[in-house]
Known about the structure:
binds nicotinamide-adenine-dinucleotide; binds magnesium ion
Amino acid sequence: MTHDPATTPKGVAVLGSTGSIGTTALRVLDRQRQRFQVKALTANSNGALLKEQVRKFQPSFVGMVESTADGDDAWESGTDALVAAATRDDVDIVLNAIVGAAGLDATLAALQKGKRVALANKETLVIAGDLVRDACASGLGEVIPVDSEHSAILQCITGHPASQVRRVVLTASGGPFRDWSQERLATATVEDALRHPTWRMGRKITIDSATLANKALEVIEAHFLFGLPYSRIEVVVHPQSVVHSFVEFIDGSVVAQMSVPTMELPVLYALTHPDRVEDDGVPPFDPVRLSPMTFEHVNHERFPALRLGIAAGEAGGAAPAVFNAANECAVAAFLAGKIAFTDIPRAISSALDALAGLPSGTRDQLLAADATARRHVQQMLKC
Ligand code: NAD
Ligand code: MG
């Protein structure tokens, strides 16, 4: 019997399988079993859900970083389990749906092994965009974005050389506080901030969407993914989340990608790019029902995190890693009820001012910058 790579299902590792993107990905993979086989699953905790997923997909590798009582003795534990899952020989595609800096090592290891990384974990690119780019350039590994805006851009530019792109415009829903005054923002509760108008997501990214730090992370992500200078990456608020981004080409023509707000589509595309495959997971597109579609400028006074992140991106070096770590630390403190919503951008700004010019050439230096920024924020916020 001959082995035909075109018809053999590709092996997929889903890192962060119990999260919002992880469970979305497993819904897609369940529909696409002829094309993809789940070979590895990892989570941080929540052994009960992981067990259910293991029963359904029968992966050959399971990892749970924190070995809690509801786990299984046969599972790998500790952070090494993430790299082990990401570098397995039976895995072709690593879907990295881990939240935060914890996703970095698995991305780098998978790329060094020549895997496709379907990347939801945008923090990886923000902390270590240069290292990711070098890892892709030196081998067969590639990063395909799962983030809806970046998937949109990729879908618009595929088939065009980078030299034909004039600029990209990322859309932002504006989050739950789009219409809130500065005074009211200072009183925003965790519950208010978790009430996102268009997307159901994990807690950290939902808070990032409320501060617009998420859009800052995405601007930096776009810079590294598409090799565009920051001056050619713009942001527009689009509350309906139907247009996922715009690409303007050098002839002035603008191409956008649209769908109802669902992450199933960008997850599927990250698995199949540049191909498209038959799938019925996305509700039919009805432009009348989705109307009106509106666009407005970002209010930078009320949402300073966006400009802080772009400035960190422009500064380069360790500044994006400092931005990310300060944000992660402040968001955790906000979610724990220890600080006010408006303390989040204040903490980021303080960390960036205090920690300019940290060394950034290696993974260890970037993680040291990450740790320094977290310590700075903890001291500043007394949390
Ligand atoms: P989530 O909190 O719902 O899930 C996170 C997953 O990562 C869980 O499976 C959790 O067990 C695992 N995890 C958490 N901490 C970990 C650690 N220290 N080590 C190993 N695993 C750990 O988050 P999410 O909303 O699914 O987001 C995941 C990533 O995707 C984030 O980077 C987010 O910015 C990005 N993203 C999410 C969405 C969305 O719609 N949810 C959209 C675009 C991008
Ligand atoms: Mg996004």
